[in-house]
Amino acid sequence: MGSFRGHALPGSFFCFISLWWSMKYILKYACKKYKRTCYLGSKALFHRVEVLEGIIIVGMALSGMTWEQFVPGGPHLTLYDYEEGQWNQLLEWQHCTMYFFFGLFGVTNILCYTSCSLPVSLAKLMMSNAFFVEAFVFYNHTHGRDMLDVYVHQLLLLVIIVTGLITFIDFMRSNIILELLQPSFILLQGTWFWQIGFVLYPPSGGPAWEPTDHDNIMFVSICFCWHYMFSLIIVGLIYVFVTWLVKSKLKRACPSEVGLLKNAEREQELEEEM
Amino acid sequence: MGSFRGHALPGSFFCFISLWWSMKYILKYACKKYKRTCYLGSKALFHRVEVLEGIIIVGMALSGMTWEQFVPGGPHLTLYDYEEGQWNQLLEWQHCTMYFFFGLFGVTNILCYTSCSLPVSLAKLMMSNAFFVEAFVFYNHTHGRDMLDVYVHQLLLLVIIVTGLITFIDFMRSNIILELLQPSFILLQGTWFWQIGFVLYPPSGGPAWEPTDHDNIMFVSICFCWHYMFSLIIVGLIYVFVTWLVKSKLKRACPSEVGLLKNAEREQELEEEM
Amino acid sequence: MGSFRGHALPGSFFCFISLWWSMKYILKYACKKYKRTCYLGSKALFHRVEVLEGIIIVGMALSGMTWEQFVPGGPHLTLYDYEEGQWNQLLEWQHCTMYFFFGLFGVTNILCYTSCSLPVSLAKLMMSNAFFVEAFVFYNHTHGRDMLDVYVHQLLLLVIIVTGLITFIDFMRSNIILELLQPSFILLQGTWFWQIGFVLYPPSGGPAWEPTDHDNIMFVSICFCWHYMFSLIIVGLIYVFVTWLVKSKLKRACPSEVGLLKNAEREQELEEEM
Amino acid sequence: MGSFRGHALPGSFFCFISLWWSMKYILKYACKKYKRTCYLGSKALFHRVEVLEGIIIVGMALSGMTWEQFVPGGPHLTLYDYEEGQWNQLLEWQHCTMYFFFGLFGVTNILCYTSCSLPVSLAKLMMSNAFFVEAFVFYNHTHGRDMLDVYVHQLLLLVIIVTGLITFIDFMRSNIILELLQPSFILLQGTWFWQIGFVLYPPSGGPAWEPTDHDNIMFVSICFCWHYMFSLIIVGLIYVFVTWLVKSKLKRACPSEVGLLKNAEREQELEEEM
């Protein structure tokens, strides 16, 4: 991962998945709220989507692990170099471990939505779990590096822990707002991976930022807030877009009972969200 | 902010908003409890007040950001000074970022109470969010200062984090007592800003307090408790006043069903608050 | 407080109050469970007891504050010694502040059970509050002392924080077991105050324990567990005693519906406790 | 405990108990879900099992304490060596204290399921309590050791605290998934005890791992994730096995209403798990 591309790849992945999840959650919520009963908002479709998602995540985790192992200069599945008497490329093994837990989450997702003997919320717990393991590995990742390098990774750690916590709280008490906060933080994680790439391995080929300048640290902390701001706004815009779509476009395609609900009922519904 | 006025201004703002919020929360609670149904305690009025509040907060955030940027000697929207090859007044940019998140809370407040496709509790989450971002920025704010300076800002950080946590818990489980605890802590934050001004930049023009004396640290920690004590008592007095107002003054103006409720029912109600 | 008696006094107080509270909580619970409806288990009696408790706590807080201020060599209400240009006995002022918050809890207790416009659970929040403030003050209390001295106070801090947390969780979700855990920790706090007295100011007049010996630290940590063990067992014995009392002795005095309840119902009740 | 066997013994114990608990929890859950009403899934049987478990745990705690005290070279119940003027083998006393709290949990388990005047959830609290005390003792256990030694015990501490927290959350809000997460972490604790044995006291008789090599630390952190992965998979396999057993094998032996439930009902049930 010690390159611009090594940070841009996971960054893009997290950005993509967070955009997709925020769309899915909002669509689910809006369909439920406006009681759309056509195929597009049906439970069966959402179940199939979840299974598909699980398969994609497992696929990505597998390919990620393969890539980490068999890239030229990778560990090629040897953990201990007996000739030199030392461990063999532990950083790559750390990445494999992280991928594995995301893969486990994917497998759980598939199982939860195909077998009826598993509680659905288990998938959420495994997602929260994957983030906590990622946080644990990152915590043991930056030994002996420069101040700036450590700091940008600490901020990443902060995002990952908060994502794990929010997913765990959402697992305990399902809540649409927490559900949306989670893709916001995953988006923040994604864009922050990109930012780390730009800070430590500038793609322009110029030198990395001065690692011991306190002004850089300070700017990075502001920049982190801006990324967060940006991710909140993006998720907000998706919310507006999807709600508008469900409200206006799907009206023609699907039968809806929204007209039949009285105002009072809708308000009550609104409050019951909590 | 490095002046008495720079601390007195946000202090006054937080004091004002906390007094207003504690009045609003208690009025809402008392009206609901004594089942006043006239215009003053109606839902429609409270919704309009929330929207107005949102507009005021957005206005204050915008003017705060403008002021930070265009004050003589401010950054004037230039982030990086290419001539000198260094960042341009990052402290002011930090303050702008804080203001932005309070502005975002204001915008959410307006949207939550005007559009019916947003859950109302979102506003609370964004408030908690604004406090957490403020805490994050303050945490990266006091690098390389004196012991006393760092300590008074750490205490501020403590208040801000507790406020954020209480607002978050209140977001998860709405509860009148937590709702009132929140303006108490905002009031504490406000008066503590004033205190910081008096400690670090005495308005009398005298020298600042000796920054390395441990006795000063110790007194400051006691003083912090006294501020807290003071803010709890103020909110308590507002509670007494507003409840008395609703009970006695509004009796003539509004039809009430309080006389019709039996004692037992009221007690039960009391317990259901939890 | 820097003496054996200074630690034995608050220790005795906390021991006494915890024994009393555990009896009260268990009596309340047992009366409710076995549906005793005579005067001894009635709501009215418990309300009067709470008010009395509040008065006692306020009285103790006031006398504590007076004593700290007007003891020979005390601060006599002067905070700053203008002649010597330094703060006047801040340790005593710290203790006064702690007493004040316990007094505030007492006042709230009285108000909650006399006025019906206050939610009853407010008293619990103020209790939790008093413990958190005590923890905050203790945290700023042990600057520049010996290792052993700091360590025994850190353990005290741990108890106080846990007590505050448990009371806060109990405030959020009332639960008999948490309610009983709270007097256990208060008892632990009480006996630990005594232990601190014995460790730092041996009443036998011998020298204090060697403050830099790591074995002492280690023994103190074991001893702390034993105190906890002891307090759990004491509360358990009180539970057995009070339940037996309610079941057997009060049977003659009060009419009870316990015989009328079917076994199944009682079991269900048992599970609803959660 | 300073030997391979000293770590392998508690490790085996925790592995065994976690396997047993995961089987019990899943069996309970599956029986409830598929509404098996025969003796094997009845409440009475589970109560008897709990009492038996309690007795076993108390027995193990007692034998553990006896063994720690009366092993050749053990403290033989003398706490202070008056001749040499120093504490007598505090490490063994620490272990006794840990055993005691597990014994207390066993006693509570017995009492909760035999007496009907105790809330059943008390047993869970005492279990969480036993883990927290274990964590507290371990925290004060590794003073002045090598980096690797401290690190492997810190990881153990992490598992123990997480187990305690999960048990506490499960005590507050009973939930099958959290219930299963708990034996996963106990299994992790068990296998990690074994791992510590292999790292610090290799049974092959070779030298211990180099304690100051950062690569070892890094591998240990990866290895920890692998143990976790392994424990999750084991619990998952037990889940599959027990569910399959209840579904297919018990069908002949016990009357079941599973065939009578409509699909929709089962789905609803699934969602109510949360």
UniProtKB/TrEMBL annotation, chains A, B, C, D:
Any Pfam family: DUF716
GO cellular component, one term: membrane
Compartments reported by the entry: Membrane
Membrane association type: Multi-pass membrane protein
Chief location bin: membrane
Residue intervals passing through the bilayer: 6-27, 48-67, 97-115, 122-139, 151-169, 176-197, 217-242
UniProt KW keywords: Membrane, Transmembrane, Transmembrane helix
Family: Belongs to the TMEM45 family.
Protein name: Transmembrane protein 45A
